Every structure is written in C-alpha cells, then in structure tokens.
Amino acid sequence: MFFGYVDRAIEVKEGNLEINQRNSNKDDHPILVSPLKARTFADYDVDDGTTYAAPVHFTYADSLISPYIKSPFGHECENHLFTPFDEMKLQTYDEQTAAGKLVVEEERVEGRVSKEVFFSYFAAAGGWPIVLLILFIQCLWQGLSIGSDLYLGYWTGTAKVLTEEQFHQQAEYNITIYSLLAVGSATMVAVRVFFVSLGGMKASKTLFHGLTAALLRAPMRFFDANPLGRVLNRFSGDIGQVDGRIPWSFSYFLSTLFVLIFSLGTTMVVIRTYSVFMLPLIYIYYVIGARYVQPAREIERLSKTTKSPLMTHISESIEGAVLVRAFGSKQVRRFERQHQTNVDKNNEVLFAGDLAGQWFAFRIQVISATMLLVTTLSLVYLRGVLSPGLIGLVFNYALQITANLEGMVSIWSGLEMAMVAPERVAEYTNIEPEAPRVISGSVPAQWPTAGSLTFTNVSFRYKPNDPLVLKELNFHINAGEKIGIVGRTGAGKSSLTMALFRINEVASGTIAIDNSMAIIPQNPILFKGTLRNYLDPFDDYTDEQLWDVLTKVCMHARVSSEELKLESGVEENGENYSVGERQMLCMARALLRQSKIVVMDEATAAIDHETDQNLQRVIREEFASSTVLTVAHRLDTVLDCDRIMVFDQGRCVQCDSPDRLIAAGEGIFFELCEEGGYLDRIMSPKSQEESE
C-alpha cells in the first residue's frame, strides 16, 4: 500500500527474505537503525515550527525513507522529516540540555570514610566478640614473639658468664624453651589467620546478602535512574574488595601496629635517648600519611565512579554485539571510540593514584633511612655499655621499626581506601525500599477468589515529584468480565497496569484484588535459562501439564522441533524466539497458574494477524471464566469485550458496552471508531438484527 514511499519491498517468510519488487532508479542503501540509546540528538525544524529529534548518526544511507519522495501527483517533493545531517543543529544530551533527565549522576561521598562504615563492617563480621577475640590472639602472638626474641638474647648473653661446658649443658633446655615460644607464636599466627578469614567471609556474605536484598526490594524508578554498570560495579569491584582486600588489610594493620608498639617500647627501654629522635619522626610519619590519605581516598572513589560507565558500555555492547556488527564498520568504530574514551577516563584516575603513591613512598623511605641512621649511630656510641646480644636485638628491632612504620602508614592509607567499597555497598543497601510485598490484614479470610477487581479513589504517579498520571479512579470489575481499555496516546492506559501490578506504589486510594494475576505485555521479557525453568521455575507442574499448555498456545510443534525439547535454551530476553512466540509463552505461563485476572498490555501491537488470531482464540477458550483486561490501540481486539473503559488524561471518562458507547453518537470511543473505520463493523450486525 505504501510501495511508492520505499526503495524496496521485502517479504519475510519462514525465516527467509524474499524481494518482491525493487525500484531500480534508487540507490541500494542499507537500512540501519541505531542499536543503543542515543546520547546525542539533532534538532531540526519543519515549516510549521515543530521541533523533532533524530539520532546524530542519521544520514541518507541510514534512512528508511529517501530525502526525496514521490508525491501522488508523480513529481518529487522534499521530505522534511529527513533533513541532511550536515544541516542539522546538534544538541548534546547532557544535564544542561536534557529536561526531565532520567539517569541521575552517580553519587560520590567526599571526606573521610565515616566511623559508621567501620562499625557496620565490624558488625557484619560478627561484632565485638570476633574483634576482641582477634585482638586477644594478636596480643598472645606478639607476647610469644617478643618472648622468643628476648629469650634468644638472654641465651646468647649467658655465653660470657658460663663456661663452655655449662653452656652446652643448658643448650637442650634453652632450645626447648625457645622452640616452645616459637611454636606458640606460629600457632597464634595460624589461629589469627583462621579467625580473620572467618570474620572476613561472614562480613562479605552479610554485605552481599544485604546488597542483593536491597536491590530486589528497590523501586523500579531506581533501575530507571541507575545504569546496569553501576550495579555490576558494586557486585564485582566493591564486593571483590570486601571479599579479599579488607580482611587482610585489617589483619596486617593489627599485626604491624602490635609489632611497632613492642619494637618501639623495647628500643626505647634499652636506648633511653632514642625517644628524643623517634617521637618527632613518628609525628612526621603521621603528617605525611594524613596528607597522602586524603587525595588517595578521593582518587579511589573517582576510579570506581569512572569505572561504572565503562562497565555499562561493555554490558550494552555485549548484549547488542550482533546488532553493532550488522550495522557496519562505521558503527563498530563508534563503539570502539566510546570504549576507548571510557577506558582513558578511568586510566587517568588510576595514573593519578600511582603518582600520589610514588610521592608518598619516596618521602616515607627517606624518613625511614634517617631513622635507621640515628639508631645505628646510637648503637655505635653505646657499644661498650650493651652486650652484643642486646645490640643485635635492638638493631633488629630498629630495622623492623623503619619497615613497620612505613608499612603502617601504607596499610592505614590502603585500608581507608579499601573501606570505600563497603561505603559504596552501604549506599545501595540503604536505598529506600518499595512497599511490603504482603500488606498485613489486607485480605480477609472470607474474601472471594473469583477474579473481581475494585479501584477506590486511586491516583498514581511514577516518581514522588511527578504529576499524577492516574487521577481518582473509581470502578469495579466483576469476576469473569472482559474489559477493553482504550484511549489516545498518553491517556493513562499502560499506567493502569503499572498501578495494578504495583510496579510503583499508588499515590492515594486502594486497589482490591482477590486472586493471582498474569500479564501478556507488548514486548515480553524471557530470562536466560531453559524453557522448563521459564514456564515452571519452581517445579510445580508435570511434563504433561507443560506440553498441554504448549499445545493450547500452538507452541507444541515449535518446542518439539528443538533437540532438547523442554530443556532447550532460552537466550537473554528470549532473543531466539519471535515476539509472537514470546507472547504465547507468556500465555502458557498464565494458563499453568490458572490466573483469574489476565492483563494484556497492547499484546497485539507488534504481532502478525495469524498470531493475533491464535492469541484471541486462547483468551476466548481458556480464559472464559477469568477476568481479562485488554489494553489496546487496535480497537478490533476489544470490540468483543463486555465493557469498554475509555481513558483521557488519567481519568476514566467512559465505561459501558461497545454498542452503547457507539449508540451515544459522541465521545472519545465514538471518535476512535470513526477514525479507524470500525463504525461499519459495529453497526452492520446491529442493522441486520433490526431488519430481521
């Protein structure tokens, strides 16, 4: 019918493309469609002053309609809907130009990690019992370790006062004592590692379950405003740090702290003047560490924030890889450039972090070398006062002090950077949940289960500050009624189903439903897995029941042709099934559940006539006793309904049988039927009945 407006007419039949006819006077341009959401738009004006929007990368070769089309009078006229791209006015889709922006900026906390984050992590790990137990084990380990070192110093010091024979006689006893202390120290290390691992696994498990539960209970507007990459970043990078980095950072921090305290204490007791030099150096360590931690912590947050767009783009590209390749090398290069841009932004932050780390390491090592020099000079000065064993012990501790002070500051800064991960997890754990799944006392025990539906003063909006899209709806649908819901675009038809299924909570009013519901949407979503898992995720039905419903929805032959039958795979979003087949599978699920209320949200808008007829047949035969709500733009799918509900600007303005609404001779439904040419179809049977 519209062949004059196209370059080629192509018929799709049984998976094959058959070109019926082609206009040889036109160039053979490929048909391209932008595979992902456009981030940049081009505005261009037509003669009436109306502004339209189109993807930036739209050219003549991309167009479904040529820039010049033939009019019914035979001459070519310019098609203003496809203005050349070079003549378009570019507009970047960003925060400044995008009114009503849906995706929000990712939040980034500034300043120090709050103590509540540390306390929440300790609570997830087991609370004070596990913390005090690890501290006690750490004290035992340090005591045994210091004891073994002191005993070794005592043992070597006795060589001056004992004869060689006495020294050898006491050797077995000394070896036994030293070995027991060393074995006890090693045992405490193993015990500490065990409890640190136990606490870390418990904390990771608790935070992971909390994050998962929070996202499962999050309102739908949260997923509209936050891309998938942000969620993946929490579950991969942040949870990964909670799994491995944080527990061992705490363990190293404690062990280094205890070693440092005991080493400093021992050294200061032996060399009393050592504290005069050490305390200022320790303060310098603290100042440098504090100065480094602040930018390092913000760099860590920035690295995670810049990683989210990278993961979002990767996930979208993987999901649409076939489409991207199908649109040619130009689109592939565009995705590659975007990916490289995202990688560069993340690498810039990581490079800044490496520079800050090198700045910190250089200064810490200079101070450590200075401290070691002071210790060595002090020991040389006291060489005639101290025994060789004590000098060796102090020098060994001095080496440990410099290494441990350097490690202490590094671990402290790394630990605070690592705690950014549970901080980000807590951001999603603390998001406002949707309303409880089951409202206590909402359904009396004697409530009937026939499929009736009642709306009482129901108002509905998508976000808290948005205007109402449904306004004070009041109606009752009897059990078993077939209701058609019509209206012009934006009238509130689909919003009614959103309120009915509690995708968002109603702003006011109540909805009373007495049984389970099922929905057959315009674009059904099938989860990846097997066909059996999709139809019966909880294994409630037998194979005979599954094959029975597949037969009823005319999918028996399609599934039987698969090698694995019911165990055949379902791709992500059901891509290995057509839209009509997906809707039939949705219908099969509804049949299995014996749903008393079935909602069809424009289910026939994207399917062919044959599939539409099968869908209507199943509804008539299998859901004869169920309540069926059909939201439709095509009026022929609702003309056989018991009643028609007409929506306009969020209100139900008409509700009656199709015949009575037509007989009124006015109203929105009459206008829709008149515009669509349905009046003759409705009036003809009525005229025949009157003539008879």
From TrEMBL:
UniProt entry tagged with the keyword Transport: yes
Membrane topology, record value: Multi-pass membrane protein
Segments traversing the membrane: 118-144, 175-195, 250-271, 277-294
Keywords: ATP-binding, Membrane, Nucleotide-binding, Repeat, Transmembrane, Transmembrane helix, Transport
SMART domains, per database record: AAA
Domain of life: Eukaryota
Entries under SUPFAM superfamilies matching the protein: ABC transporter transmembrane region, P-loop containing nucleoside triphosphate hydrolases
GO terms assigned for molecular function: ABC-type transporter activity; ATP binding; ATP hydrolysis activity
PANTHER family xrefs: ATP-BINDING CASSETTE SUB-FAMILY C, MULTIDRUG-RESISTANCE LIKE PROTEIN 1, ISOFORM I
Protein name according to UniProt: ABC transporter-MRP
Species the sequence originates in: Thraustotheca clavata
Organism lineage string: Eukaryota, Sar, Stramenopiles, Oomycota, Saprolegniomycetes
